[in-house]
């Protein structure tokens, strides 16, 4: 069994989730159960799916959960775009968050490619 704590991308995903929680504290109250909640849940889903994938026995299942993590990161990008356009976050917050999530995306994608190529899985 893989130990998810050994993956730097998991650690960075947890840190990123905390950043998102702090960022959304300033969202309007009306967004508590809307964009704020969606953004938080998508951010938490990034490291959560990495961790869950580590519990799977097959490499194919692990890769599948990494793909879920990647999908959640794309959701976060979309929700950040909406938040900046609505004026809930400023350009600096947006750029910083996008830079972090795209770094996570690149590393998750690289991990997927590595484990698939090492095991000849499509």
Describe the structure.
It is elongated, with a radius of gyration of 15 Å. The chain is 76% helix and 0% strand. It has helices at 8-24, 35-54, 59-85, 91-119. The protein contains 4 helices and no strands. The protein has a single domain, classed as de novo design (two linked rop proteins) (Up-down Bundle), CATH 1.20.1440. The two termini are 21 Å apart. The mean pLDDT is 95. With 122 residues, the chain is an all-alpha fold.
Which regions contain 5 or more consecutive residues with pLDDT less than 50? Answer: none
Given helix and strand content, the structural type is mainly alpha
Q: What is the name of the CATH superfamily?
A: 23S rRNA-intervening sequence
How much of the sequence lies in strands comes to under 5%
How many domains? The number is 1
What is the overall silhouette?
Answer: elongated
- How far apart lie the N and C ends? 21 Å
CATH class: Mainly Alpha
């Amino acid at each position: 069994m893989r130990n998810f704590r050994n993956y730097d991308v998991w650690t960075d995903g947890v840190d990123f989730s905390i950043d998102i929680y702090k960022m959304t504290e300033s969202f309007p109250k009306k967004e508590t159960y809307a964009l704020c909640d969606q953004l938080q849940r998508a951010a938490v889903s990034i490291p959560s799916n990495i961790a869950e994938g580590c519990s799977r026995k097959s490499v194919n299942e692990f890769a599948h959960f990494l793909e879920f993590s990647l999908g959640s990161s794309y959701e976060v990008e979309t929700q950040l775009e909406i938040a900046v356009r609505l004026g809930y976050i400023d350009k600096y917050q947006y750029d910083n968050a996008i830079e972090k999530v795209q770094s996570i995306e690149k590393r998750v994608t690289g991990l997927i490619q590595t484990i698939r190529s090492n095991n000849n899985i499509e």
